[in-house]
Specification:
By secondary structure, the chain is mainly α. The chain has nine helices and no strands. Helix 2 crosses helix 3. The longest helix is centred in the last third of the chain and has 18 residues. It is elongated.
Length: 205
Amino acid sequence: MTDAHGDEAPTDEPAGGSFAERLDFLCRHDPRGPFSSPRVVRMLADQGMPAPSDTYIWQLRTGRADNPTKKHMDALADLFGVPRDYWSNDATAAVMNGMIHSLNKLKAKGATGEQLHRQLVRFTKRMKDGVPPESLIEQLHTVARLSEAGVTATAMKRLQDARVTRIAMRAADLSDKSLTAAAAMIEHFRQLEGLPPEPPSQSHT
């Protein structure tokens, strides 16, 4: 299946090392996609990012144009949720491509493209904050093993919620001093995870 510019359906081939190959890989394998070149332009515009023409994106994807501006490179990296050095750093590209492949495998277990994209964005932020990629990859492998064992995305969310509930119940009898210390530790770990100080559902309006 192709779009107006001849974009093909996604395949499982690894991305190459050129800008064109990496951009085309992201368009094909983004968990929310695959995306045609016009769709990429619309998404950039919808998010208020620098948006070139459909034809120019297609030219960049196919290598017919090889002169992207820095603002377009940064906008495309932000759109796809990868680090901005994805285009120039082979190690970064290899890590992110592996993560994208692993995340896409979770679709069969009930995870949506948007959920998987948000997870990719979180991984990117944590890498920027200094978390070793190896630890993030291990988290993905753990989730993949659970999925292979038949645990769906919905079930994993229930398990996560139950774990939070157990932590709260065990903290019920602690002293004020201990609760303050526990709250400080949780805040520290939320910062490491790249999360806001309070979950959205608990934020004050």
